[in-house]
């Protein structure tokens, strides 16, 4: 009974602390860094005239999650957006010469 | 020993001859040669689809599928672009506030000239499409430009295409390095893979014409611009060449450019040039 009571109190403490953990400074900072890196990569893809719609959508999802205070989800989305942006940069760079392989001659 | 030396020398000479024979091809392949490109481009489609009449390629998916063609021919009795055509004709004849009309901006009063667009403007050093020329005409006469993708622009270009039906596409590339660069950039754009789906224009319209992509049959790239603008059932309305390019880009999950950005102007120049000789069939209707 005492153990049960202690567990309930522990659960209550956890529940109360939950939102505090979610907005913990470390997590928000991590999101901000991940988001900035993703934005920078997407900007570079823009300079190469090869942005992907999925990068923009994933960046928007990251921002939405951050606005709702879910920084774990926001950070994961920002990292995914960065990976997408980097893939678009790779595509643009490699296609600079590869397009010729497809040309009708 | 002597035999080995002569064998070695023989191999070396053969290698040198082979190198000498192949190197001019490498140089030639890198040289911009629109005439050779157009010939190779058209031959590719003529050989891939030997049963399709050359002038039929401008009818896009209908040239690839007999059932679709029959349905389309019936539709053509009351074509879905007719409203746009009537509206375009009226708009074309209606004077601007200053009393001038579109006819004042174009050679031959704008009638029967679709086959000459886009052209390379040597003054500007860039490609000018029909859509761009129409908006420039409006602005030069104190009117607001239209949206490039549909509605009024589609109606105007539909009327201008209609007055040019049957005329062979006749795009010129002047002897100007900037024109050749624009053509080459258009070609590069056409073959460059983009978007998360990693598709180029050629993926669908060179590698897979006649194949299905979901419920649609892909059109061949040859003559694809000759049918513009088009009524698309998917759009429930008319769309311009600009609309076609931008939606193609979003469909492969690439962020489209602004209509009439250099990339789109150049790719229209390239696609139109390699379709030279095929008749204008616009406005078209597509599923």
* Order of SSEs of chain B: HHHHEEHHHHEEEEHHE
Number of helices of chain A: 4
- Given as residue ranges, the uncertain stretches of chain B (5+ residues, pLDDT < 50) are 1-28
Overall number of domains of chain B: 1
Overall pLDDT confidence of chain B: 91
Q: What is the overall silhouette of chain A?
A: elongated
Largest interface: A-B, 20 and 25 residues
Q: In which range does the helix fraction of chain A lie?
A: over 70%
Q: How would you sum up the major sheet of chain A? A: none
The tally of helices of chain B reads 10
What is the percentage of strand-forming residues of chain B?
Answer: 5-15%
- CATH top level class name of chain B: Mainly Alpha
Strand percentage of chain A lies at under 5%
Largest sheet of chain B: 3 strands, mixed
Which H/E pattern describes the elements of chain A?
Answer: HHHH
CATH topology of chain B: Cytochrome Bc1 Complex, Chain D, domain 2
Class of secondary structure makeup of chain B: mainly alpha
Indicate the radius of gyration of chain A in whole angstroms: 21 Å
Class by alpha and beta content of chain A: mainly alpha
């Amino acid at each position: 009974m005492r153990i049960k009571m202690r567990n309930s109190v522990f659960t209550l403490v956890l529940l109360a602390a939950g939102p505090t953990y979610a907005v913990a400074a470390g997590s928000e900072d991590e999101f901000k860094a991940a988001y900035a890196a993703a934005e920078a990569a997407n900007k570079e893809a823009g300079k190469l005239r090869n942005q992907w719609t999925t990068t923009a959508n994933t960046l928007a999802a990251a921002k939405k999650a951050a606005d709702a205070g879910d920084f774990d989800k926001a950070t994961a989305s920002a990292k995914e957006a960065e990976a997408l942006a980097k893939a678009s940069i790779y595509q643009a760079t490699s296609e600079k010469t590869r397009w010729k392989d497809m040309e009708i001659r | 020993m002597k035999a080995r030396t002569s064998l070695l020398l023989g191999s070396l000479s053969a290698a040198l001859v082979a190198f000498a024979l192949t190197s001019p091809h490498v140089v030639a392949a890198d040289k911009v040669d629109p005439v050779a490109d157009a010939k190779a481009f058209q031959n590719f489609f003529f050989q891939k689809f030997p049963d399709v009449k050359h002038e039929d390629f401008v009818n896009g998916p209908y040239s690839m599928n007999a059932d679709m063609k029959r349905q389309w021919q019936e539709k053509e009795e009351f074509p879905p672009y007719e409203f746009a055509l009537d509206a375009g004709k009226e708009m074309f004849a209606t004077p601007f506030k200053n009393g001038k009309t579109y006819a004042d901006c174009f050679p031959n009063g704008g009638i029967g000239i679709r086959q000459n667009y886009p052209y390379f403007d040597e003054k500007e050093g860039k490609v000018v499409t029909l859509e761009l020329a129409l908006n420039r005409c409006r602005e030069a006469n104190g009117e607001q430009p239209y949206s490039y993708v549909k509605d009024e622009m589609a109606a105007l270009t539909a009327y201008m295409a209609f007055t040019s039906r049957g005329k062979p596409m006749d795009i010129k590339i002047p002897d100007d390095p900037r024109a050749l660069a624009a053509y080459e950039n258009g070609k590069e754009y056409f073959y460059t893979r983009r978007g998360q789906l990693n598709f180029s224009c050629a993926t669908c319209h060179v590698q897979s014409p006649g194949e299905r992509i979901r419920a649609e049959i892909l059109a061949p790239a040859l003559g694809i611009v000759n049918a513009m603008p088009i009524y698309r059932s998917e759009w429930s309305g008319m769309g311009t060449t600009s609309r076609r390019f931008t939606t193609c880009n979003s469909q492969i999950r690439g962020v489209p450019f602004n209509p009439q950005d250099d990339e789109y102007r150049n790719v229209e120049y390239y696609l139109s040039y390699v379709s030279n000789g095929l008749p204008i069939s616009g406005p078209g209707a597509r599923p």
